[in-house]
Amino acid sequence: MHVTTELRMAEAMKTAARRCRLRSGRGGFSLLEMMLATAVLLGCVIVLGELAGIGNQHVDDIAGLSLAEVICQSTLNEMLSGAAAVESFERRAVPEHPGWTVSAEVTSTDRQRVASLRVMAWYESPQQTVSEQAAVRKHVFSLVRWIRDPYSPLPGGEGNGGGSPFSLMDQIGGGMGP
Known about the structure:
CATH class of the domain at 55-171: Alpha Beta
Number of helices: 4
CATH topology of the domain at 55-171: Pantoate--beta-alanine Ligase, Chain: A,domain 2
Helix content: 40-55%
Number of strands: 4
Distance between the termini: 128 Å
CATH superfamily of the domain at 55-171: GSPII I/J protein-like
Radius of gyration: 38 Å
CATH architecture of the domain at 55-171: 2-Layer Sandwich
Mean pLDDT: 79
Low-confidence stretches: 159-178
Largest sheet: 4 strands, antiparallel
Structural class: alpha+beta
Shape: rod-shaped
Strand order of the largest sheet: 1-2-3-4
């Protein structure tokens, strides 16, 4: 009987060993695998966080450039419509948009009675000095329009008198009015 008991115990141990091997073959992840997977996941989260930050910075830049374009276009439209004089000026604050500055430059060209009207807008941080602002201008936008030179005489010898380019066109018969 002693032999059969030993045989049964040996058989039970073999069965237990097989079960143990079967469990380990279909078991879960080891601690090392979990730590490696966690490290990879953490690395991905860090990279995605950085990309989101870069994306937000680009969105801010695009919004700033869009606003600068609107400011330039508004200033240009005011000048061309006659609501503001067609003249050069430096560093004029934009009251509707605090922190934004606009400048305009009227330059005669080689062509007779044609001038270049350039309007620039940019954002200036109130914490910076004037020299720092010039060095680190953000969201700078420039718009150039070719216009009739407001300072050149008309073909008949008359002066323009500093009116808008549209009134000049009306004076020479090229306007859109009746």
